[in-house]
Specification:
Keywords: Methyltransferase, Transferase. This is HIT family protein. Its EC number is 2.1.1.-. GO terms for molecular function: methyltransferase activity. The structure is a single chain. With 141 residues, the chain is an alpha+beta fold. The chain has a single domain, classed as HIT-like (HIT family, subunit A), CATH 3.30.428.10. The protein contains three helices and five strands, in the order αβββαββα. A five-stranded antiparallel beta sheet has the order 1-2-3-5-4. It is globular and about 40 Å long.
Length: 141
């Protein structure tokens, strides 16, 4: 996967670095896996310094982000066959622009409510984390 070098000074927000694991590098975004085994949950983080809102991206970056969100959605659909996908860019706690793509199932712990604040995150075991990332990377190939 092509990767544009991050701008000088760009870094993954410390909270995102703590809560996620790297999966892939898209042309614009780093694709991260949320460390919550309750839900297949990806996060895309554009490597654009000081981007807080979607409108902080130029038009070509906005188009690239849209394509990459679509790619993340298709990967979750292929690997997990969810009933629904939730896509959101909230940023209320972490100001760095990032987009959540979450596979949802009628039987999941939070259904039909949002995943935030419903249940305590269940970190992946080391073995399950490796398996989950391998499955996602294989689907991206």
């Amino acid at each position: 996967m092509n990767r544009t070098p991050p701008p000088v000074g760009w870094h993954l927000h410390p909270q995102l670095a703590e809560d996620t694991h790297p999966v892939a590098h898209f042309p614009l975004c780093d694709l991260q896996l949320m460390d919550d085994a309750n839900h297949p949950w990806l996060i895309l983080v554009p490597r654009v310094e000081n981007a807080v809102e979607w409108t902080d991206l130029d038009e070509s970056q906005q188009a690239a982000l849209t394509r990459e969100i679509g790619r993340a959605c298709r990967v979750l659909q292929a690997v997990f066959q969810p009933h629904k996908l939730n896509v959101a860019a909230l940023g209320n706690l972490v100001p760095q622009l990032h987009v959540h793509v979450i596979a949802r199932f009628r039987e999941d712990i939070a259904w039909p409510r949002p995943v935030w604040g419903t249940a305590t995150a269940q970190p992946y075991s080391p073995e399950e984390l490796v398996r989950r990332i391998e499955r996602l990377r294989a689907a991206l190939a």
